[in-house]
Amino acid sequence: MTTTEIRLVVSPGYSGHTDWLLRVSPDQADVLRSCLEAEGLHVGTEIEHSAGSVLEILTVALGAGGAGTALVVALEKFLERHKDKSVTFGAEGNVETMTGYPMKDVQRVLAEADRLRQKRDAQWAAIQENTKPDKTDPT
Fold first, then answer.
1. All domains of the chain, ordered by start, with CATH?
2. pTM for this one?
């Protein structure tokens, strides 16, 4: 059964990595996967260990080169395919719902998610720095 409402939430993967987590309505996961793979992206499936998750999670590994552009193209194709449906799309913590999602906003959403990645990476680096043993401690 296909729904007329689709949810797609983009978030950065693990700190220090260039992967992205795409949380998508389960009945649209295969469609999104095919759009991503058609652009040459490597896609995996994540399992979230929390009760009540209603979205399937795809992991997209981005390497060097034009992989970021390929991700934009794939998401644009996915959203274009569903332009007549209500789509909730955005970066983690800041999603919007509309019908006929504007393609120009894909880059904006990915840039917003990338800022979130940079913030998390900086926070993780600070945590790691604060947990290093003090070399001046005589004990």
1. 5-128 (3.30.1360)
2. 0.73
